[in-house]
Amino acid sequence: MSHVELSCVECGSRYPEDPTLLVCPACASRQEVGGHTRGVLLVRHAELPDYWPQAHGEWRGWLPLPDGLELPRFPVGDTPLLHGAALGARLGMPHLWLKDDTRNPSGSTKDRASWLVCAKALQFELETVATASTGNAATALACCAAAFGLQAVVFVPVTAPAAKLLHIRACGATLLAVEGSYDQAFELSSAACLARGWYNRNTALNPYTIEGKKTALLEMLTQAPGHALDAIFVGTGDGVILGGLGKGIADLQQAGLLGAAPRLYAVQAGSSDALARGWEAGEAAAARVPRADSVADSLNVEAPRNAQHALQVLAATRGGCVRVSDEELRSAIALLGAAMGIFAEPAGAAALAGLRKALELGLVDAHERVALLITGNGLKDPAAAGSHLPDALRVAPRLEALPKFI
Q: Is 141 exposed, middle or buried (CB count within 10 Å of its CB: 0-12, 13-18, 19+)?
C-alpha cells in the first residue's frame, strides 16, 4: 500500500490517518447542527498503480489498507457492467450500460463503503462500528460487521422500510429506530459514537465511505469498452456515492490511466433536491430542504452531508443535477424490470429516471456512451418498488378461463 494522508475538501489541510479524526478540525468548527458536513476528508495516495486491474482483488492497491492485513472473504464488488441493448433500443441509445450493484451481498452499493470501514476497524483494532441510515447503509454495515466479526449499532428513522429492518435484525446488529428524520438519527448516532467510543461509519464523516464507494467507478471504467464512458447517472441523497465516483475519476487521472472524465449526473427526488438547488444557484454548498419525503427513502435527505464535495465533483466533471418525480421513479422501476430483468428499489431506478429526463432536456446525446449505476435491489423496499406494477390476474384453474389477450 502506498503512503496515504487525509485531505480536507474545503481548506486543503492534510492530516495523518487517525481513527478518531473524521473531519478537518478547523473547518468543522464552523459546522451548523443538522447542516451539511464541514471539512469532509478525502484519502490522498502518494502513489497509485499504473495499470488497469482485471478483478476486484487487484483494487486493494488502490485502497488505504496495509500490507498483511488479513480480511474475511466477503464478496463485495465485482458486479457486472451490463450492455443495456433492450433498454437502449427503447430509448434510442445503442451505447447504454448498467452497473448492477443490486448483486452486492446486502443488495446495494453501500456494501462497498461498509466493507472498507469494517476493514479499517480491524486495522485500528476497534470492536464496534455504528452508523445512521435511511436503511441501506445500516443493512450494509450489519452484513459486513457480521462477516468481519464486529459489533454493529445502527440508527434508522422509524419510517425505514420493513424489509431493511428485518435484514438488519437477521444479521445480529443492534437496531435503534429513531422517532424522527434521518438527519436527526445522524446527529444522535454521531453523539453516541463520541460518548461510547464506537467507530463512526456515518457517511461524509468517515473518510473511508467515499474511498470505498470509488470502487464502483474503478470497476465501471475497467469494464467499459476502451475504458471510456461519456456520462454516468446515479441517484443522489447525501452525495457520498457521487463523491466516491468523483474520487475514482481523480485517482485514475492521478495514475495517468484516464484522460477526459465522464460527466457525472446526480439524480434527485423532487422533494429532496437540496443539491439540485445548490447546483442551480451556483453555490458552494446546499441549503436545507424543509421536508424530504419521496417514495425513494434512500434519497430522502434534508441536508446533504457531502454537499460541498458533491458539487465540486459535478463541476469538475462538467456534469449536473436533474430532478425526477415519484411517478417518474415508479415508471423507471417498471421499465428497468421489463427491459433488463433488474428489480430496483426507487433510489436504484433513479439513474434511469434521470437519464430519461436528461434526454428530454438535451443534456446527453442518444449516441453517447452512458452508464447507469443501479444502487439498490427492489426487495429492500417491496411496497414502494411494487406500487406502480400491475397486479396479478386472478383466474380459475381451467384453460378456458385464461384471458383472450394473453
A: buried
